[in-house]
Amino acid sequence: MCVFIKICNISENPLPNYATDGSSGMDLQAFLKKSISIHPMERKIIRTGLFIEIPIGYEGQIRPRSGLAFHHGITVFNNPGTIDSDYRGEIKVLLLNLSNSSFVVENGNKIAQIIFIKYNKIKWIKNFK
User: Fold this and answer.
1) Which of 16, 54, 64, 108 has the fewest C-beta atoms under 10 angstroms from its C-beta?
2) Residue 29, beta-bridge partner list
3) How many angstroms separate the CA atoms of 118 and 40, rounded?
4) What is the value of pTM for the model shown?
5) Checking DSSP bridges between strand 36-38 and strand 58-63, what pairing results, if any?
6) Which domain holds residue 45?
């Protein structure tokens, strides 16, 4: 099943896409005017230049890229980060450097991945025993 999501991209980077037919996530790229250094145990918010309209009943989840985590100790701080269907601001990624070395993020670097998940709302049953 394919879900259509409206997107506005103010960066020069291509739209996120699936790298393979089996991919569940799409890479997000940094949208920066100048590079950003993330020092050991420091966290920084990185812009993507993307604005999306997620349909009700779905959420976007921002997750780390395994290559960045393994090779550089870079992860998404609030993993997974949730984008609610009513959020209309720019997608930003909160990166955390868990390594002993500074890491430089350049414009266009793949910094995280996004996946879309269908969810169900619940209703509470009071006084259940």
Assistant:
1) 108
2) 110
3) 35
4) 0.92
5) unpaired
6) 25-118
Condensed to tens digits (0 to 9), the pLDDT of residues 73-110 reads 999 999 999 999 999 999 999 999 999 999 999 999 99
102 occurs within a structural domain: yes
> What is the C-alpha separation between 115 and 86, in angstroms, rounded?
16
Sheet of 90-97, strands arranged across? 6-9, 43-53, 90-97, 74-76
Task: Look at residue 125 and tell me if it is in a domain.
Answer: no
The sign of the dihedral angle between the CA atoms of 40, 28, 92, 76 is negative
The length of the chain in residues reads 129
What's the CATH code of the domain at 69?
2.70.40.10
Among the listed residues 90, 80, 44, the one whose alpha carbon sits nearest the alpha carbon of residue 59: 80
Distance CA 55, CA 6 (A): 9
Write down the pLDDT at residue 55.
Answer: 96
Closest by Cα among 31, 24, 25 to 8: 31
Whether residue 94 lies inside any domain: the answer is yes
